[in-house]
Hints:
The protein is of the alpha/beta class.
Amino acid sequence: MVDWHIECIILAAGESKRMGKPKLLLPLEQGTVLEQTIDNFLNSKVDEVIVVVGNRAEEMTNLIANRPVVVAVNPVYRHGMSTSIVAGLSFISDETQAVMLALADQPFVDTQTINHIIEAFRTHNKGIAIPVYQGRRGHPVIFAIKYKEKLLRLKGDIGGREIIDQHPSDILEVPVNCEGICIDIDTVDSYYLERGKLK
């Protein structure tokens, strides 16, 4: 097994337009949605966690100040998810061999699932690893560092999907038993529904 140096970029810069309020600051478990997501990755086998903030950046930075993460501020977050990916990539270290892209509004992706994706990536020779739950692809997605330049050239709000579509033969689909990879908190209803499942 190759012991890849993998750094995680958590995308937390959005405006929560569909929610109508800052969803990442909503209460969940012992903290907030954002804190739960970050803690899931901090407890995993990733080597570094980079959190990209934009909307309400100061408030979010203060909220996570006691956690061992790198905070990247994206001043142009309104131009789409791609700008946050670029902002996060500017903070990865020289030894990074792969980047895991994660969505901050997916707090139900547990640490065990994150580690399973990492271990699968490390034991195969594919450059992209995507978790799959009951036939549905989700997040987080791992990209080998060879895709860094293509990630830096992304535009708009599509994330890494364009690269995934261009390289189907380099994709490792990783079956997981975690519905959370497909669940993001976009609306008030989805927040209360998923939060209720924890009780």
